[in-house]
Design brief:
Number of helices: 4
Number of strands: 5
Largest sheet: 5 strands, mixed
Structural class: alpha+beta
Shape: elongated
Distance between the termini: 101 Å
Number of domains: 1
Strand content: 15-25%
Radius of gyration: 33 Å
């Protein structure tokens, strides 16, 4: 009688589908990719995140509505007389301005806690050659130096006392209120 041998079927190492080292490298690359996505994702969202909160945005919107309502005469909607704007807002000192538009201040109203800039700007401040043109805009309140602020804008018609619009605001201008 013959001894029967058990035949084992095996594969050599180069025929195997995946080794332990392949698995470790694959999982390592996957974990690094996930870590990169989670670390990079907040920087994609950041430019769309407003540094101004909801309170500042609501305050700017309220002030813009109040300015338009106070200066519109009722005959023409959103029509502002530039001399009246200057008398009421531009020539007012900080305490008077804070009272008129309802800014937060201490009891003596000597210290105003909120900063506001109310300005009337041209809709298209570019010149004929496409460059930015520095306009003589009507502005009241604190100086705005491109810091982060909440803003609200209204399209208004600006006219002089005699009913003619100033140069640059023939069709319309933009009333911009910024708070910070």
């Amino acid at each position: 009688m013959r001894d029967e041998r058990t035949i084992s079927v095996g594969t050599s190492a180069w025929e195997r589908g995946q080794t332990t080292q392949d698995f470790v490298v694959g999982i390592g690359i996957f974990i690094l990719a996930i870590a990169f996505v989670f670390s990079f994702l907040p920087s994609l969202i950041t430019p769309f995140d407003s540094p101004a909160g909801g309170a500042e945005t609501a305050q700017a919107d309220r002030i813009a509505d109040q300015v338009v309502a106070n200066l519109s005469d009722g005959v023409q909607a959103n029509e502002i007389i530039d001399d009246e704007f200057e008398e009421r807002y531009v020539e007012a000192n900080e305490t008077e301005l804070s009272k008129q538009i309802g800014l937060r201040a201490n009891e003596d109203e000597e210290i105003v806690y909120d900063n506001v800039n109310i300005s009337i700007e041209r809709l298209n401040p570019q010149g004929e050659d496409g460059r930015y043109v520095n306009t003589d805009e009507l502005a009241a309140g604190d100086t705005y130096d491109n810091q982060s602020a909440a803003s609200a804008a209204r399209i208004v018609t600006v006219v002089d006392e005699d009913g003619t619009p100033p140069e640059g605001c023939e069709s319309a201008c933009r009333l911009v209120v910024r708070t910070w």
